[in-house]
Amino acid sequence: MKKRYITLIMVSSLIVVIFSAFFIWASISYQPMDEALEALNSTEYVEVTIGDYILFTPKNVTPVEGLIFYPGGKVEPESYAPLMMKIAEYGYLVAIVPMPLNLAFFSPNKADIVIEDHPTVLNWTISGHSLGGAMAARYAYNHPQLVNNLILYAGYPADSDDMSSYSLEVLVLYGTENANMVENIDEKFLLLPSSTTVVVIEGGNHAYFGWYGEQRGDGEATITREEQQTIALNETIVFLSLL
C-alpha cells in the first residue's frame, strides 16, 4: 500500500511539473512591435474596436464581406494589426481573434462569435498565420456552410482536414526563406482544392507576415518586412476582389 502511495505521489508530481513547464513555455509570447500598436488607433477610414476580438470596421460603408484572422502560435494578436487595418481600408470587416495562451488549437471555433455578432455580413473569409492558419483551415473544414474562402499565411491544413473535394476558394502565401513551408508544401497542397491559388514570396520568411520581431528558427529574409507586407496585402485584395 505504501509503495502504491509513493508511486501515486511521484506520478502526480510529474504531471504538475509537465503542466507547469507547458504554461511557462506558453506564457512567453512574441510581443507586438510599435508599428503594430500604432495600427490599433482608429483612422479617418477605419474604426478600431477592442473587445472580445480586435475589430476593424470601414467607415462610411456597410460591409457585406468579412475576414476573420487567427494569429500564429505564441504571437500576440495585436502583431497583425497593420496588415488587417489595410485590408479593412478596402471595405472589408476584419476581426483578429485572440486565442487562449496565444495557441489557436485551444479554440479553433472561436470564429463563431464574430459571425454571430455580424449577421449582415454575407460572405466570410477565414484566415490565419502559421498555427493560426492550420486552425483556420480546420474551421473551414468543419464549417463549409459558414465560410466561403480561406487564406493561409505560411500555414497549411492538418492531415485530418482534407478539403480537396470542397468548393472552397483558397489562397496560400509563403516566403522562400520559410524552410518548414518549403519542405512540406507539396504534400499539404493535396489537402486543398485543386483551384487553390499559391503565391510564393521571393525572399520572404515566416515572421514578416506580422509585426512581432524575429522568430526563433526562422529563415533570414532578403526583403524587408514592409515589402513582404505589401505583397501579402496586394495578393489578398486581388484574391478577395475576384470572388
What profile does the largest beta sheet have?
8 strands, mixed
Give the overall average pLDDT: 91
**Uncertain spans:** 10-27
Q: How are the strands of the biggest sheet laid out side by side?
A: 1-2-4-3-5-6-7-8
Strand content: 15-25%
Q: List how many beta strands DSSP finds.
A: 8
What is the rounded Rg?
A: 19 Å
User: What gross morphology would you assign?
Assistant: globular
Terminal-residue CA separation: 68 Å
Q: What is the CATH topology of the largest domain?
A: Rossmann fold
Short description:
With 243 residues, the protein is α/β, with parallel strands linked by helices. The protein has seven helices and eight strands; from the N terminus they run ααβββαβαβαββαβα. The protein has an eight-stranded mixed sheet with strand order 1-2-4-3-5-6-7-8, with helices on both faces.
Keywords:
8-stranded mixed beta sheet; Rossmann fold; about 240 residues; alpha/beta
Show the helix and strand layout.
Blueprint: H1 2-27, H2 34-38, E1 46-50, E2 54-58, E3 65-70, H3 81-88, E4 93-96, H4 111-117, E5 123-129, H5 131-142, E6 149-153, E7 169-175, H6 179-189, E8 197-201, H7 225-241
Parallel strand pairs: 3-4, 3-5, 5-6, 6-7, 7-8
Antiparallel strand pairs: 1-2, 2-4
